[in-house]
Design brief:
Blueprint: H1 2-11, E1 41-44, E2 47-51, E3 56-67, E4 70-82, E5 85-99, E6 103-113, E7 118-129, E8 132-142, E9 148-151, E10 165-167
Antiparallel strand pairs: 1-3, 2-3, 3-4, 4-5, 5-6, 6-7, 7-8, 8-9, 8-10
């Protein structure tokens, strides 16, 4: 149980996801709440296309987005701006978000809303930290508070298809 609490805390997931179980020790402060959303957003890709009227930019082909110590990879990324500032980063196709403190999250699509500091990942979401793994259909993370919610709906499961799944390996790092 302690391993589960630590893993959830590292991923920024609230320990209340395990509220039905007695807590062995208080969870550590979530690492995601330490993300610097004021750091510059660096994007690289194979190609770029701008829509000056729509105030959007679209990157495609091996897209890498870096902000602080967080890195996102995707097939394509679209960024919208408001008043000349980044507003929303929408990634699609094989989205992978890596953070040395939080582990790796993968999904089909991802949206980073810069102002409210939220991340929404959808479609076959998988969270990994060491040997520990969690799966669901949708992940919502508030980077300001470190709170997160992983929703069910794992595809390909005959029973319990709307459930979150987790595997925690005792004594893993």
């Amino acid at each position: 149980m302690k391993q589960a609490m630590i893993f959830l805390a590292l991923l920024g997931l609230p320990s209340t996801l395990l509220a039905a179980q007695p807590a062995a020790a208080p969870a550590a402060k979530p690492a995601l709440s330490q993300h610097d959303s004021n750091a510059p957003i660096n994007i690289s890709s194979d190609s770029f296309q701008a829509d000056l009227n729509g105030k959007t930019g679209a990157w495609s082909g091996n897209v890498v987005v870096v902000q602080g110590d967080m890195k996102m990879r995707a097939n394509s990324v679209r960024m919208t701006t408001v008043n000349g500032k980044a507003d929303k980063v929408t990634a699609s196709g094989n989205v992978v978000v890596d953070s040395p403190k939080s582990g790796t999250a993968t999904g089909d699509n991802g949206i980073y809303s810069v102002g409210p500091r939220t991340v929404l990942m959808t479609g076959n979401v998988v969270l990994k930290k060491g040997k520990d793994v969690m799966r669901g259909a949708q992940l919502t993370v508030n980077l300001a508070t470190g709170q997160a919610v992983l929703g069910g709906g794992v595809k390909g499961q005959a029973q319990g298809s709307n459930r979150v799944q987790a595997v925690f390996t005792p004594n893993s790092q």
